[in-house]
Sequence to fold (358 residues):
Amino acid sequence: MLLNILVKLAVLVASASAAPQRNKNGGNANANVNLNQIRGNGQGIQAAQQLAGPGVTIVEKIVQPTAGDPTFLQFRVAMPQTITPDMGLNVLLHGDGGQSFFAMPNAKLDSNLIGVTVLAPNAPMKWGGLGNNRPDGPQHATLVKDLVTSVLPQMIPGFNQSRVYFTGVSGGSLTLTSAMIPLYGNMFQSGWLIMCGGLPSPNGIPASAIGPNTRIHVQTTTNELTFLQQTIPTAITDLNQAIAQVPGITPQQAATQFTFDGTPNGGHCAFDGQGFSTGIQAMVSQFTAVMLNGQPAQGITAATLTPLAQAKPFAAVTGAAQNNGAVNGSNANNRKGKNNGGNNFVAALQQVSNGQQR
Fold:
């Protein structure tokens, strides 16, 4: 009896640690310690190796990727025995607590995309640091950018550096939307899979962060965390306003290039309706279908993905939040960067989308 109770408690603690954690004090000065040794003692590598299959070896390293910044960054690569020029990367940023780093759901070579997972460079393993606004997001984004552009080309010589995709899980998605895309989207224009998370950027997202062929998909569930039910829609607003300013993208093109789905009837990241880790694995396993082919994820999403400009996730909750004031002290509609041209584009896209669904 006691053993069963302890097991249940352990499961509850693990689930809670994986979700984005709020911090009333806005941060913790001791969170970003200089961690210079590999953490985890190889946790999850054997399972990731089985997922990757033959011909791929899970390699784990720790480096200082950014000149002038002493911060170490730990990462894993699902390294193929042979690198071909068409091979790119799928770089995954985990949720709070690091579960997806250790599980490495992208370990399998999928459409010639080499799986990479990166561990947040702080003791709590939280991308962007502590606090609701993730104040360390820009620094962490720079570390990841330098890892991809400076370290990995030496470690994986010959991979296609113009074919780099990013996958965000929970807290990792907070840093992708609030810092990585706004700051370095102009360098990585293949695609972004944003799962169960999203945070608006303080200054919005510049149009240069979105390329004419950039693929973006935002995936949520119906029973998301209350905090994220407030921030994800605002992050989507940021994305839509940037997309509206990209030259040459028509509303018809945008309707299939930038998509959203929030239909899975599950909790935080439980896209399969079962749990956090299994839901993430189920979604990442269909990366090719969703991100490269623009198709729905079988057994997860609706039969047709919703255009991002038409997305209205958690409408009741976000409506109440907007009536009460800005989310996280910043209202995307009142920030620098808003313009009527962008709003007109979004309205046109919604008309196209409505016409397609009649």
